Amino acid sequence: DAMVIQNPRYQVTQFGKPVTLSCSQTLNHNVMYWYQQKSSQAPKLLFHYYDKDFNNEADTPDNFQSRRPNTSFCFLDIRSPGLGDAAMYLCATSRVAGVNSPLHFGNGTRLTVT
Amino acid sequence: AQKITQTQPGMFVQEKEAVTLDCTYDTSDPSYGLFWYKQPSSGEMIFLIYQGSYDQQNATEGRYSLNFQKARKSANLVISASQLGDSAMYFCAMRADQFYFGTGTSLTVIP
After folding, report:
1. Nearest to residue B109, comparing CAs of B83, B89, B91?
2. Cβ neighbours of residue B61 under 8 Å, at least 6 residues apart?
3. pLDDT per position in chain A (114 positions), as tens?
4. Is the CB of B95 less than 8 angstroms away from the CB of A45?
5. pLDDT at B60 over 70
6. Sign of dihedral through CA atoms B50, B51, B53, B54?
7. Are the beta carbons of A99 and B32 separated by less than 8 Å?
8. Pair B79, B66: CB distance under 8 Å
9. Is the CB of residue A88 less than 8 Å from the CB of residue B43?
10. Band of the pLDDT at B18, cuts 50, 70, 90?
11. Rounded to whole angstroms, how far apart are CA atoms A77 and B44?
12. What is the DSSP string of chain B?
């Protein structure tokens, strides 16, 4: 089945230690997104790629970076995680950016910062 | 301003009963999409149903239907014949220039 896969499912990192979360998709969608979701809150968009074009949200901290080496893969790098970065990180794709195009989410990576 | 509002933080429903989850939205864009997502405790966001702003008929997907009232700017989700597996967080979302999510409604199905 075509899908969005996130690895790892759970990630524990130490305060200040860089961490990378990965996302892959077999849907061949043009757009890939990274969302941060804290407990009992709505997902918050960090950035997205339309093909190779990177779009950063204005309030996304510089501590968060992303890479999309090809259509299938997208990575989220947190350069120096703080305790406040503990959250669920959701990768999503959409075929295009049109209003009728749903987001397809992966299972998420739950990040713990110790 | 683009906005999605879900006013019910938590809802309870008896198994096999129907339940309506409320969602209102605000946008000045003539073209937009409305979506509902289910998020179980395991964390994945599952796409349930879509309604386009120009669609004349309410969307249905199995036990899910979307009660779209454009003049009132509401897009309520109706779940018929609730099952225990329906217990989850439900997010309403709107897509115009970007995706906007509501704050979610936690649904608990009681046996």
Report:
1. B83
2. B48, B49
3. 669 999 999 999 999 999 999 999 999 999 999 999 999 899 999 999 999 999 999 899 999 999 999 999 999 999 999 999 999 999 999 998 888 999 999 999 999 999
4. no
5. yes
6. positive
7. yes
8. no
9. yes
10. very high
11. 21
12. --EEE---SEEEEETTS-EEE--EEE---SS-EEEEEEE-TT---EEEEEEETT-SSPPEETTEEEEEETTTTEEEEEE-S--GGG-EEEEEEEESSSEEE---EEEEEE-
- What pLDDT is stored for residue B2 in this prediction? 85
Q: How far apart are CA B60 and CA B48, in angstroms?
A: 10
- Bond before A8 cis per omega within 30 degrees: yes
Q: What's the pLDDT at A44?
A: 95
For chain A, say whether B64 makes contact (Cβ under 8 Å).
no
| Residue bearing tokens 């969307």 | B59
Q: Is B6 on the interface with A (CB under 8 A)?
A: no
Q: Provide the β-strand partners of residue B60.
A: B65
